[in-house]
């Protein structure tokens, strides 16, 4: 299969030089594996060759969200130039997440931000938190963790596949471009980002910290992005924005390919919960096993020989408390919506009770919860090294694992009918 590709010359501020942006007929910007191709421009009298189509045999093209615009027709002895603005910012500017409402998984905030700008109000933060499985899944690593959710692990393993899958389920095209790939062809990807901003669509920034690019200055030499709880964009030099390895990159959400049933999307997400809660690898695990290994490590003296200086509270412990607290307190909206859209989901009430119990174990269990026992966000190394004090904490963490086992059982009983 071949494509015709139209090319457009954009003059730089250095006179006769510039870049060529090429657009395939009805397919927008490509991410095909076509190599690092350049196009010569004869600024003299050979404009006819400039407008020639180029044939590609690859069919691996990504479909852009950008709307079709009238093509510039290059006439004989004439080359039409396009004047680009130096600065721009999208009109939708607000916080990426509101962590006081439990929005602690920033990739979901990024996904929601883009869909909001595309007019998809049903695809909000909590929708993506359920679709990714983040809001239902406890995680645990065997060393120390900088990941905050299931989606973080998936982005480390195969970001391209994960992003494409999540958006495909919503009916949209999407692509992930790693920072090393951006550095190989910076101008092309920068112009793509600028084109998105000019169409009032943000581009997701993956990497520490996660956020969305919402504007640019000085023709893209400076990028504006929103992250965390800030409601004002931060400025980031382009060279800094593309630093880092393959685990950092940009996510472009493309065109809408199909309309998916919201009821079906919620149904699929609920039915996948047991799968998420059963993951175990050589370096991490999810679900009941995550709680049990967390408890086992404390019981077996993981912290006994550790000094206060070595004890990274977040990476070794409170990260997991945060996930427990978030999921045990905030998953109900997605569960209720799933039941509303799928009237036969009568088992949802039992699932809610079990997640409610995990939330109580964290901070509402009549003085026997983790916070009351010194094993919540208030944990200290001294408590974890005290066998008597930690024994009660270990028991509570293991009870959470029992709740997760029951959740899997309840859902699988329904889905295997």
Main features:
three-stranded antiparallel sheet, 417 residues, disordered N terminus, alpha+beta, Cathepsin B, Chain A, seven-stranded antiparallel sheet, 17 helices
Detail the topology: elements first, then pairings.
Blueprint: E1 3-11, E2 18-24, H1 47-50, E3 54-56, E4 88-89, H2 106-117, H3 125-131, E5 139-141, H4 150-157, H5 159-169, E6 172-178, H6 179-184, H7 186-198, E7 203-206, E8 211-217, E9 222-226, E10 234-237, H8 238-241, E11 249-256, H9 262-271, H10 273-276, E12 284-286, H11 288-299, H12 313-330, H13 332-341, H14 348-363, H15 370-373, H16 381-385, H17 387-415
Antiparallel strand pairs: 1-2, 1-3, 4-8, 5-12, 6-11, 7-8, 7-11, 8-9, 9-10
Helix pairs in contact: 2-3, 4-5, 9-13, 11-17, 12-14, 13-14, 14-17
Could you characterize what this model shows?
With 417 residues, this protein is α+β, with helices and mostly antiparallel strands. It folds into 3 domains: 1-83, no CATH class; 88-128 and 146-260, Cathepsin B, Chain A (Alpha-Beta Complex); 263-415, no CATH class. It is built from 17 helices and 12 strands. Strands 4, 6, 7, 8, 9, 10 and 11 form a 7-stranded antiparallel β-sheet that branches. The chain has a 3-stranded antiparallel β-sheet with strand order 2-1-3. A two-stranded antiparallel sheet has the order 5-12. β1 and β2 (18-24) form a beta hairpin. The two termini are 44 Å apart.
Name the quaternary structure.
single chain
* Record field, number of beta strands: 12
Tell me the strand percentage band.
5-15%
DSSP helix count?
17
């Amino acid at each position: 299969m071949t494509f015709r590709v139209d090319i457009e010359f954009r003059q730089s501020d250095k006179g006769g030089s510039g870049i060529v942006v090429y657009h395939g007929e009805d397919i927008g910007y490509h991410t095909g594996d076509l190599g690092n191709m350049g196009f010569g421009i004869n600024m003299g009298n050979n404009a006819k060759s400039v407008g020639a189509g180029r044939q590609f045999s690859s069919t691996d093209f990504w479909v852009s969200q950008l709307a079709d615009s009238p093509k510039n027709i290059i006439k004989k002895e004439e080359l039409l130039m396009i004047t680009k603005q130096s600065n721009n910012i999208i009109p939708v500017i607000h916080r990426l997440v509101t962590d006081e409402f439990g929005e602690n998984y920033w990739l979901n905030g990024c996904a929601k931000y883009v869909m909001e700008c595309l007019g998809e109000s049903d695809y909000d933060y909590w929708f993506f938190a359920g679709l990714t499985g983040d809001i239902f899944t406890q995680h645990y690593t065997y060393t120390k963790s900088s990941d905050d959710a299931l989606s973080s692990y998936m982005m480390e393993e195969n970001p391209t596949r994960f992003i494409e899958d999540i958006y495909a389920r919503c009916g949209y095209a999407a692509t992930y471009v790693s920072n090393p790939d951006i550095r190989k062809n910076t101008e092309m990807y920068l112009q793509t980002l600028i084109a998105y901003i000019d169409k009032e669509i943000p581009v997701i920034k993956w990497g520490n910290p996660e956020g969305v690019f919402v504007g640019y200055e000085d023709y893209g030499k400076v990028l504006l992005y929103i992250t965390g709880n800030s409601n004002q964009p931060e400025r980031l030099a382009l060279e800094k924005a593309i630093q880092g390895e393959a685990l950092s990159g940009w996510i472009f959400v493309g065109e809408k390919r199909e309309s998916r049933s919201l009821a079906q999307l919620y149904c699929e997400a609920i039915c996948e919960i047991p799968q998420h809660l059963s993951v175990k690898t050589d370096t991490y695990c999810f679900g009941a096993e995550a709680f049990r290994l967390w408890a086992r490590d404390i019981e077996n003296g993981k912290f006994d020989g550790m000094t206060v200086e070595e004890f990274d509270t977040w990476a070794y412990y409170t990260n997991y408390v945060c996930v427990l607290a978030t999921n045990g307190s905030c998953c109900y909206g997605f569960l209720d919506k799933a039941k509303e859209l799928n009237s036969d989901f009568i088992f949802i009430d039992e699932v809610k009770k079990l997640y409610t119990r995990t939330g109580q174990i964290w901070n509402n269990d009549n003085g026997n919860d983790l916070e009351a026992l010194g094993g919540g966000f208030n944990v200290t190394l001294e408590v974890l090294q005290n066998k008597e004090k930690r024994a009660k904490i270990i028991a509570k963490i293991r009870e959470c694992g029992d709740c997760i086992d029951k959740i899997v059982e309840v859902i699988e009983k329904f889905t295997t009918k």
